[in-house]
Write a structure and sequence with these properties.
Layout lengths: L7 E4 L2 E13 L18 H12 L6 E6 L3 H16 L4 E2 L33 H9 L11 H13 L1 H7 L5 E7 L1 H12 L16 E9 L2 E8 L2 E4 L1 H9 L1
Parallel strand pairs: 2-5, 3-4, 3-5
Antiparallel strand pairs: 1-2, 2-6, 6-7, 7-8
Helix pairs in contact: 1-2, 4-7
InterPro entries: His_PPase_superfam
């Protein structure tokens, strides 16, 4: 069955027109990660299948453009999702020219931002706690980029592409960013102001993440964040980060 087209979403009793959608999600199931294979670690067979299945569910009326972490598992997740999207409902993929200058960020726009600066000094054995310490400002900036600084970079170089595209008349895009759990949590907390517990079910599992809907509400443009089926209006904070 082909995925249903996405044209509107409901928010606080109002039906809003979706013009673009940005997705930031964690990669799919991976092989065990160590310092040595943090970049080269791959997806498991289940992870590869799950990524294809997820791509099949991307609304068929959205033209997909993929971005991903430099880690192999991120690249595999993104490309498998693209394959699934093409194979279901004749989904379309954006080529390097279709968004033109909008998609250029001053760096390799196909690669998602990552905050780790020194991979040898990161505690992988207690990963979720490491992420929490980082977000609470308890990890040295020589090891990981400060979370506030990282969030500004993430929004301006990656998450704002869908919004800039909308403002320049380019609509109907799904901007898929496949990254890691710490990036998803940093974006969610930074945009909503809600703190996540690393031991709770709200922490992003494999393949989970958030959507940013670039919507039209009467005469105003708004950005609605969806995470774990809940939606938040993050327009003000998002626009502040775009301008900095």
């Amino acid at each position: 069955m082909s995925p249903r087209p996405m044209k509107t979403i409901m928010f606080k009793g109002r039906r809003l027109k979706v013009e673009n959608r940005t997705t930031l999600q964690r990669h799919y199931n991976k092989t065990p990660t160590t310092v040595r294979n943090f970049i080269s670690g791959t997806l498991t067979k289940k992870g590869a299948r799950d990524a294809i299945n997820a791509g099949e569910k991307i609304p068929k009326n959205l033209t997909l453009r993929i971005y991903h972490t430099p880690a192999v598992r991120g690249q595999q997740s993104a490309t498998n999702m693209a394959s699934g999207h093409i194979g279901a409902g004749k989904g379309k993929i954006s080529d390097s020219r279709s968004l033109g200058k909008i998609a250029k960020t001053g760096r390799d726009a196909l690669h998602e931002e990552a905050p780790i600066r020194d991979f040898t000094k990161v505690d992988y054995a207690n990963w979720n706690q490491t992420v929490r310490k980082w977000l609470d400002g308890k990890i040295d900036k020589e090891v990981m980029q400060p979370p506030g600084e990282f969030l500004k970079t993430l929004v301006r170089t990656q998450l704002a592409i869908g919004e800039r595209a909308r403002r320049q008349g380019a609509k109907g895009y799904e901007l898929l960013n496949v990254s890691h759990d710490l990036v998803v949590v940093a974006a969610f907390e930074g945009l909503t102001g809600i703190k996540l517990n690393p031991k709770s079910k709200l922490w992003p599992s494999y393949g989970n993440g958030l959507h940013l809907y670039h919507v039209k509400d009467r005469k105003a443009n708004r950005i609605i964040l969806q995470y774990k089926r809940k939606r938040y209006d993050v327009t003000k904070k998002f626009n502040e980060l775009m301008k900095r």
